[in-house]
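User: What would this chain look like folded?
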Amino acid sequence: MTPITLVEGRRIALSNLDKVLYPETGFTKGEVLHYYATVAVPLLAHVHDRPVSFLRYPDGPDGQLFFTKNPPPGTPDWVKTTPVPRSEDLSAEQVVIADMATLMWAANLVVEFHTPQWPAGRPAVADRLVLDLDPGPPATVVECCAAALWLRERLAADGLEAYAKTSGSKGMHLAVALEPTPSEQVSAYAKLLAQEAERELPDLVVHRMAKALRPGKVFVDHSQNAAAKTTAAPYTLRARARPTVSAPVSWAEVEACRNPADLIFLAGDIAPRLDRDGDLFAPLTDPGRAGRLPGDRP
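Assistant: Here's the prediction, encoded as structure tokens.
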């Protein structure tokens, strides 16, 4: 019998809690749920009022993966959704992870959480800028750190404050809080930044996705700012060999990184980091910290 758990007054069926999802470490589905409960406060702050897409991996990272923007079959009627019109479906909706009950229901599906750079109700009006730094082997996150430090200073020159997190895979994400700005403008600015980084750091950075250009370099993916794109949310688990997390990091950690292992964080690492440092991405949720793109200033 599937156990029923009461979360904030909602009855949620939590299934297969002993199922091993990450064979390399023996990490179980029950531990996945425990992890998400542990990081609920900061995670909910970052997905607050945003449509969420799910990458589901119910049989673990080596099983079948399902990426879905639509509410999954069987979504309870108490789960909040928001309209997200798409060209192929003007009536489309997506889930909003609004509370602990919804988070636990979604975590039971075994998911990565991905969000766009704009909030619910304002499609294509971004309040985030994101740069996805993706290393082409033999480059690693160490090279991403070098690129991130240059981009941090370049953004600061435009009055924008960047925050870093691991992707939970091989690379790194930089995020900037913005006053509401059309996604098209944010995308254009991000592309210019990536192009400038390539000109200034030609041995380190590329701004185009072509695989032939990427070995040994860091691809600065500016396309994440397009209205249709999503990025792994802070604190989400990733469908990798181990239960890695997309974890916010300090700039001191970025500066000190000399080995890829320096910036790999597993589920069990996050609670101690939160106890020690708090939520390093918290400034992104403060409207007072939002910046303006250079062309938008009065």
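The chain has a mean pLDDT of 94. If you want, I can go into more detail on any region.
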